[in-house]
């Protein structure tokens, strides 16, 4: 799928053709610097984008295309089939309502539980995210940042969705709480066979909690594969830079700018030609200025051209870099 924002200054191609798949119980990590299109992708999955966004392609949830659902169907699908955990729960929670009521709301709205049963369910959900049941009576300001994020997770789990999308769910939290919350999300989805898309600019965090990783740059996926393989053996120079960018504790800026990688991510309205990473790439060839390479198997195994066509359904390691391509064949006479 692809997403373009229309603005007074012109079109902003925020997501430029991406194909990803998530299976039941699987955690897919989506990494990339700020501005690479991660949140646009996340919001598109449940059609939460502003009207200025034009979306093309398909988003299949259990085979049904979210982009072609009518509003009634879409409302039913939100929360009940797929739900989102956003960054900074402080803003997503209503400050003047008790958190228990807020967790119960999707259950009541979707007719999944009557009020008395919803109260029991809320107590159970709070327990699962590591909060005592009496916390249902608390207001958001009475909770710490980590506790509010746990409340958001309880809300996302409330209707037993098939897919959870977590967009930087822990970025606002300190490092210790971050690890706890991520481990919690991971264990809850694996136990219940829920699919998870976890978004972060921090590849090391994703590598520790996800099965597979996809690295985004300028609205495209430039590398994907099994989490450990991508993290320890990235084949795209951008994937490598992200993998080496271990954050320095206490220095927020080190989490945003991958160490050793100069320059800024490109403005989607002024993308460089060819491979959009080439101006920052330490191993760029002259041809990278005009040539954009598709994702290509990068695990060193022999490449069958037929494999390449079906790559979106496979779990092998792929990278969109000229250095991963097989040697060009000599033209035969
Ligand atoms: P990320 O989550 O990876 O930081 P985003 O998806 O938020 O990236 O943004 C991707 C690009 O789309 C950025 O260049 C951003 O400025 C642009 N963008 C996001 N929202 C809008 C919008 N409503 N209108 C125009 N451009 C937008
Ligand atoms: Mg974002």
TrEMBL record:
Pfam families, per the entry: ABC_tran (PF00005), oligo_HPY (PF08352)
Main localization category: membrane
GO BP annotations, alphabetical order: peptide transport
Recorded GO MF terms: ATP binding; ATP hydrolysis activity
Keywords of this entry: ATP-binding, Cell membrane, Membrane, Nucleotide-binding, Transport
GO cellular component, one term: plasma membrane
Bilayer topology annotation: Peripheral membrane protein
Intracellular or extracellular location(s): Cell membrane
InterPro entries xref list: AAA+_ATPase, ABC_Ni/Peptide_Import, ABC_transporter-like_ATP-bd, ABC_transporter-like_CS, Oligopep_ABC_C, P-loop_NTPase
Sequence ranges assigned to domain ABC transporter in this UniProt record: 3-243
Family classification: Belongs to the ABC transporter superfamily.
Protein name (record): Dipeptide/oligopeptide/nickel ABC transporter ATP-binding protein
Species this protein is from: Planobispora takensis
Lineage: Bacteria, Bacillati, Actinomycetota, Actinomycetes, Streptosporangiales
């Amino acid at each position: 799928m692809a997403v373009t924002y229309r603005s007074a200054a012109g079109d902003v191609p925020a997501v430029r053709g991406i194909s990803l798949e998530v299976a039941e119980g699987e955690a897919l990590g989506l990494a990339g610097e700020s501005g690479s299109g991660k949140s646009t992708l996340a919001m598109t999955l449940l059609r939460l984008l502003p009207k200025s966004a034009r979306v093309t392609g398909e988003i299949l949830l259990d085979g049904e295309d979210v982009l072609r659902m009518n509003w009634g169907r879409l409302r039913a699908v939100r929360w009940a089939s797929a739900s989102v955990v956003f960054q900074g729960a402080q803003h997503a929670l209503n400050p003047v309502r008790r958190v228990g009521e807020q967790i119960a709301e999707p259950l009541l709205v979707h007719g999944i539980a009557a009020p008395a049963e919803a109260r029991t369910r809320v107590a159970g959900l709070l327990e699962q995210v590591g909060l005592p049941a009496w916390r249902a009576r608390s207001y958001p300001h009475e909770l710490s940042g980590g506790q509010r994020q746990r409340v958001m997770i309880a809300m996302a789990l409330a209707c037993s969705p098939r897919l959870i999308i977590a967009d930087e769910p822990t970025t606002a939290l300190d490092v210790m709480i971050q690890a706890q919350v991520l481990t919690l999300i991971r264990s809850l989805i694996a136990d219940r066979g829920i699919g998870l898309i976890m978004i972060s600019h921090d590849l090391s965090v994703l590598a520790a909690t996800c099965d597979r990783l996809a690295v985004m740059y300028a609205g495209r996926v430039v590398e994907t594969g099994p989490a450990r393989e991508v993290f320890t053996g990235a084949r795209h120079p951008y994937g490598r830079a992200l993998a080496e960018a271990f954050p320095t504790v206490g220095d927020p800026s080190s989490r945003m700018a991958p160490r050793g990688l100069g320059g800024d991510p490109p403005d989607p309205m002024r993308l460089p030609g060819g491979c959009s990473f080439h101006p920052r790439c330490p191993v760029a060839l002259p041809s990278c200025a005009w040539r954009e390479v598709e994702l290509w198997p990068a695990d060193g195994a022999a490449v069958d051209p037929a494999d390449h066509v079906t790559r979106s359904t496979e779990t092998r390691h792929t990278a969109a870099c000229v250095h991963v391509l097989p040697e060009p064949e000599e033209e035969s006479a």
